[in-house]
Design goal:
By secondary structure, the chain is an alpha+beta fold. The chain contains 2 helices and 5 strands, in the order αβββββα. A 5-stranded antiparallel beta sheet has the order 1-2-3-4-5, with helices on one face. The longest helix has 16 residues. It is globular.
Amino acid sequence: MLITMPEANKIFFHLATCEDAEPLADGGYTVDLYDLDPPVTLELYPAKGGLDVAAAFTLAYDEAQDGYYLDEKLESPEQVIAHIGSWLREVSA
């Protein structure tokens, strides 16, 4: 799934109002997507022609700590799209 510039703009607009997103320097955001299975955390930045996924990890829940922690690093674009493709389609529609 290629992200066009208009779609990237919609995604960043959504992140600006998302309670699970935190703004970063250079116009980027970290966002935790708890509704996905498994949940995913992303570090996203605007890039020439679209968006750059600087980091992506699945999250796992630790009941003893009552919180989430970084689990599996998503290494390839295919892994990232497999985990967040539905979210990308929803927010860029």
